[in-house]
Specification:
Elements (H helix, E strand, L loop, with lengths): L8 E5 L6 H16 L6 H9 L4 E7 L2 E10 L5 E9 L8 H15 L4 E7 L4 H8 L4 E4 L10 E7 L1
Parallel strand pairs: 4-5
Antiparallel strand pairs: 1-2, 2-3, 3-4, 5-7, 6-7
Helix pairs in contact: 1-2
Length: 159
């Protein structure tokens, strides 16, 4: 996708073709920058990124990873649970989360998923933006609930 200033590349990370070690430092850095002590552990990220059942999408600018999103199979049939979506701080406010989500959804559809579920933070209007963006496709939206990341809203969205 071409932006006025940058060219962004999307990669569906395939742990059978590319090593976690190749991206580990950048992923962990982006995660820790965004969530600090509430970040997923390095071990959890390693396990999740190397799980071939998960869908991991990387957003890159040349060789640098700017952000990522990943989803895993949920307990419900034909549903993927979005575990994490993160954009590095200096690249936020550029609509890059939309590029990541579009790419994730495309890959999930290829894998025959019909729904995504996620919790979205109330802070920074993330939940409100999800509600607006997916308005016609939301099949379930919960009330704000507490989590270690602050107030979250649950969404079930039709692909």
């Amino acid at each position: 996708m071409l932006n006025q200033e940058n060219t962004y590349e999307v990669e569906i990370f395939d742990p059978t073709k590319r090593s976690w070690e190749d991206i580990k430092e950048q992923i962990i850095s982006i995660e820790h920058e965004a969530f600090g002590d509430k970040s997923f552990s390095d071990e959890d990220l390693s396990n999740d990124f190397q799980n071939v059942n998960n869908v991991v999408v990387l957003l890159k600018d040349s060789n640098n990873i700017l952000g990522f999103v990943y989803a895993e199979p949920a307990n419900k049939e034909e549903t993927a649970l979005i575990c994490d979506i993160v954009i590095e701080k200096k690249s936020r406010q550029k609509h890059l989360a939309g590029i990541l989500m579009d790419s994730l959804e495309e890959e999930l559809k290829k894998r025959k998923y019909k729904y995504i579920e996620m919790d979205a933070a109330v802070a920074n209007n993330f939940a409100e933006n999800i509600s607006k963006q997916y308005k016609s496709r939301i099949v379930e939206q919960g009330e704000p609930h507490d989590s270690i990341w602050g107030k979250q809203v649950f969404f079930r969205i039709k692909l």
